[in-house]
Structure formats: structure tokens, C-alpha cells
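Case study B.
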Amino acid sequence: MTEHNIFFKPFNRKIVVHDKENLLRAAMEAGIHINASCGGEGVCGKCRVIIEKGDVEDGITEKLDKNDIEQGYRLACRSIVRSDLVVQIPVESSVDESVLNIQSTPRVTARMQKIDFEDLKEKGLFVPPVEKIYMELPEPDAQDHLPDVTRLVSYLYQYHKEHGLVVDLSVIRKVPDIFRQKGFKITVTLVRPINEKSKTHIINIQSGDTTDYNYAVALDIGTTTITGKLIDLFTGKSLAEYSDFNSQISYGEDVITRIMYAEKPGGLKKLHSVVVKTINKIIKNIVDGSGIDIDHISTITIAGNTVMTQLLLMVNPTYIRRSPYVPASTLYPQINASDIGLHLGDHVTALVYPVISSYVGGDIVAGVMGSGMYRTDKLTLLIDIGTNAEIVLGNKDWLACAACSAGPAFEGGGIEFGMRAAKGAIEDFSIDPVTFEPMNITIDGVRPKGICGSGLIIMVASMFELGIINNIGKFDRDLDTLRIRERNGVYEYVLAWKEETQIDRDVVLTEIDIENFIRAKGAIYSGCQTLCEEVGVLFSDVKQIFLAGRFGSYVDLEKAMVVGLIPEIEPDKIIYIGNGSLLGAEMSSLTNRIRRDVVEVTKKMTNFELSETPSYMDKYMAALFLPHTDIDVFPKVKARLEFRNRKKNHV
Ligand code: FES
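Model:
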């Protein structure tokens, strides 16, 4: 891929970007603040830069007059990098950092772990749980009058001798006609055994050779959002992905209110049917979007939290919310997808991820399997931040897990303008330390609509670092800016004025939002601390952290440490795995080994109830500060804050 060097003046900072990178994002990545309040839609006209050398595409809008254009002015947010550049940031767009002698730092984002298909192949792990075999069977005649199914089984037996074969009734029903459609040329679909004791299942039969068309669906059922992915089992590639809100939301925002609804007459059936409806819509979208024949889908893997799993399977969830909080089951048998109402062929098998406890569900087990933490020697911490937060600590020998009651702040809950990581969400942010003007970067570069998790972390951290908010999240009342104001007795910072937004209202961050954020991050940090203490290890023993969640792809690790969300650890030891639940479901579609290993992993995962751990509350209270009551546990943040305070006092 072509790359270009960009040199930003007067900061003398260089960055290398891919061809067609957006210039505003490039500046953000280089740690350079450019005023930008409309999120990158070209409306506010504040992100003016001068292109001194090189070429950008677009960048010219009605916000620039003829004179500006002749002088080389462009809007950074509309400029696409097409060559090496020298870019001058004019004073009106940024700040002369030497005024405060405070240098912003380039973004430190987490490495993203994706499925490395070639690596799976090399290690011999690309063995999907379902396989297709093409056969040309001898036709029966006067000497050979074996029954159809016997003919099929005896041919297949040569490949699957050691496991034995089971033929489903649905296959027997199809055999007579399918055999004769193309002169006994057929393709059978088999589910591979997961261990020495299990058998190979013949689940489908099709006429002719369809071995090139074998697909799987990976599904993550979240309390708020459901995401499905279509995977080609022949190439290992993902063909389509689609997300939608879980329609159960109309019957309750969170798992507790859903359980309460399920307890009403007909409630369980209703919740089951609406979630199935959403899943069917998602399946239809990914199938239509990729243009495949739905009959060639052979398997589906489903991961969700414990309540979502029970509601999908129509299992009464009542006792999950009653002491002593037990789920109906941890393991679920392989089922037929059509038996639970999914619009898939009656041959399609569904693997439902096992759960650990009422509050550590299949989504977390899927994260453990997908990230591979259960196979490593390294002491690993997995933090999954979703509608709530769950943590897993361990390695290939042992695993401990716990759920933290962090609440949904990172997915937008409890934040006035909070939203999921979707179009129009502010996902990256910087603030001018002199004028307090914002640099908002939104998903898809459109006018802001709200704030997603990654944006929220960066906002709180940036404002705290510059002393705009203090360590309990209160704004400095004396700053000279119209952006900090009081509304209905609550202080807030205006991220974007009404005319720069999509919603015809100012988009703001309030002190109440910050308070909720601090509670959420405090619950996660203290949960990790308590789990470490319970198993007798220190944070410093942790060799890597897997960060999972759907809060946006620009998680700035330095900032996550500044607010005290994660312990201080070298950034290169942190790996972002995105939606861990979906990753695990996808991995199970590609490698049969996961189906075998998951049972053992489930047995190995020890659950800790944080609410019953006496020291947890003290740790939680101590974590309700930025970054923490005991700043010494964040030595790098401490040093940075001290340095900046010294510089400020000097000015
Ligand atoms: S015009 Fe570029 S961010 Fe507003």
C-alpha cells in the first residue's frame, strides 16, 4: 500500500500515513490539535490548514474564498492525502504549544488482533466443524440393490471409520430424490466429531458438487445489539457483517428488567420471539448482502451473556436474579437452528457457547476462546467492556473470572449524549489548552450526534491532564471560555454548538456524565485489582491485556491509563480484540478444536463474586478518582502531571 510522509509545521512533527488518509485524522494521530467542532463534515470551517508542499484531494469547500485557495488553504477534515506533504497549521486553527510548553503526544492506540487465517492454516487449525464431501456413487442394479442410505454410509465409512456415522432423519427423507437428481452424484455435509468418543453426523445431502459453497454464521447476542457475520468455510474469509438493535429493548433496557418481563404471563415466549426476529433479519441481511444461497449455510455459532442465552433457548431466567443467582445450565447441547425458529435450513446445527455463571456468560467464554488466552503461558488479563464489564485473568493452566457492575457508560448509557460507536459518534478528541476549542473526530466524518466510549475516555483524560477538570471530575469554574457553562445547575462543556451538530442541539459533556464515567472505570479497575489479589498475583505480573468491547476503534491507551481505567503497563502489551464474543463465535466456525477445548475451558474458569469479596468495596471507593486516590499506583501519569504543573507554573 502506498504511504506518504506528512510534515506538520510549526510543530516539526512527522507522520507516515496510508494513501487516501484523511488529513484531520492524520493530525490527530500525530498528536496535533486542530480546531474542529463539526466532527469533520466541513461545516464549522475551523480546521483550516495551509498545504505548503504536495497534493491533497478535495479540501476545498465554500468555507474558503478564492484568496484562501490561492494561498494554499484547505479544510483538513475534507482533505485526502495523495502525496508527501508539508502542512502549516495556522494560529487560528491551533495553538502555539510553546505558550504553555506543553507538548501533546502522538496517539498510542492498541494493536488490533484479527483472525490470522494464514496462521491458522499453517498451524493446521483451519478445520471447520462442518465439511462437505463430493461423491459419485455407483447406481443400484440387479446385482447391487443396497438401500440408498446403506450405499451412502458404506462409501463414507472409508473416511470416518474411527468415529462411526450417524444419519439424521432429515437426511434419510431427502436421500431417494437427491440421489437420482444428478445420477447419484451428491455432496454430503458432515459435522466433525469433537472428541474420540463422539460420532460424525451426516446432516445434509445435496445433488451435484457443492463443496465450494459451505458457509457459517457467527452471532453475538448482546443485550443492546446483535451482530452477525457470514463466513466462507472454503476460504476462511468473512463475507458480510450486520448489526441491529436487539428488539428485546422495548421490553427492558437491561438484563434484570428483561428477566422481570419474562416472569409475566407469556413474557418469556415474547422475548424469545422478538430476539429470533432480530436474528432472522440479520441473517437475511448478511445473506442478501453477499449474494449466497442460504441453503449453503451449514452451521451457526451463537454467543451471548447468560440471560440472552436462556431467553434465546426459552429457558426460564428467573433464578438468575434471585439469590443464590444460579443459571439453568452451563453447557448446552448442539441444537438444530430451525428448532429455535431461525430461518435456516433444517440441517443447520447451532453451537451455543457455554456460560460460567449468572453474570459471566457465553460472550466472555467466547472472548477467552477467540483471543487464545486459554492457550498461552503468559499471565493475561481480559477486560470485556460492554453493557457491563467482565474480567478474566489467567493463562493455559488456570482462569479466574468476575463480573463488575460497571454499567453501560462505555456504550453510551448514563451519558447525556452517549451513543454506541456508530456514524456521528465523537470517537476521538483533543482540546486546545489555551482557547479550550475542541477537535472532534466523528465516525464517518459527519456532524456530531453524540459521544462513544473511546471518545469519552479521551475527553475525560485530556481535560484532566490540562486541569480543565479536577481529580473528581469537576470543571474549573474560572476558565475563560464560553464552552464551559452551567445549565440547570450542572456544569458542562459544549463539544459542538447546535448548528454544527446533526441533532439541532448543542452536544455537551456534563459533570454528571463524568461522574458516571468515573464510577464505571472505578468498578473495572477495582474489579481487576480484587481478582488479582484473590488469586495472589500483582498487576505487575500481568504480561498482556486483551481489551474487548465495541466502544470504538481508537482506544487511546495512554488516556485509558490517565483516567485509571487500566493499570499502567507497556502499551505494546495491550491488544484490542474488538467484539470478543463475535471473535470467539467466528473462531469456532473456523476451527473445530475450539468446540473441543471450550468444554475444558468452562470447567477451568473459576468465578469470583466481587460483591462477596470484603476488600472490593474499599478498592472501588479508592478508584473513584482520576486516576486513583493513590496516584503512586500510576507513576507515569503522576510524573506527567507533575511535569505539566511545573511547566504551567513557570509560564
Ligand atoms: S470544517 Fe473541518 S472540522 Fe469543521
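The CA atoms of residues 255 and 275 lie 13 Å apart. The remaining cases will be described in the next quarterly update.
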